[in-house]
Amino acid sequence: MSLDEEILLQRITVKPGLMSGKPTIRNMRFTVSDILEMLASGMTEANILEQHPILEVGDIQAALLYASLRLKNTVVIHAD
Fold first, then answer.
1. Residue-wise pLDDT tens digits, 22-58
2. Which CATH number fits domain 3-72: 3.30.465.60, 3.40.50.1450, 1.10.10.10, 2.40.30.170?
3. Which of 10, 24, 3, 37 shows the shortest CA–CA distance to 47?
4. Running DSSP on this structure, what letter comes out for residue 73?
5. 10-37 b/e with 16+ CB inside 10 Å = b?
6. Distances from the Cα of 43 to the Cαs of 5, 25, 66, in angstroms?
7. pTM for the full model?
8. DSSP secondary structure letters along 5-55
9. Would you give the DSSP letter of residue 59?
10. Which residue has the higher pLDDT, 19 or 74?
């Protein structure tokens, strides 16, 4: 895993009391699955960022990377 990927994955956080322990974006109430669902529904990165200004480009990239690694079963989780 590259350093850039490791830095991106630091945006993904898991806290037992937040969103039922699901992986979230920077300890916010946005889950990785929320991002994936928005993309799957046809929203573009620009649409997502426009409708949810608290999100950043890196958050979307991190969600995609996390999901990809999760499917490979090689995820590193950074919990606070």
1. 999 999 999 999 999 999 999 999 999 999 999 999 9
2. 1.10.10.10
3. 37
4. T
5. ebbbbeeeebeeebbbbebebbbebbee
6. 24, 18, 19
7. 0.86
8. HHHHHTTEE--TTSGGG--EETTSS-BHHHHHHHHHTT--HHHHHHH-TT-
9. H
10. 19
Q: Where are the domains of the chain?
A: 3-72
Q: What are phi and psi of 77, to 5 degrees?
A: -105, 130
Extract the tokens encoding 1. 């895993």
- Reported as a pLDDT band with limits 50, 70 and 90, residue 73 is confident
- Which pLDDT belongs to residue 74? 60
> Comparing C-alpha atoms, which of 41, 42, 35, 37 is closest to residue 61?
35
The strand pairing partners of 13, in sequence order, are 24
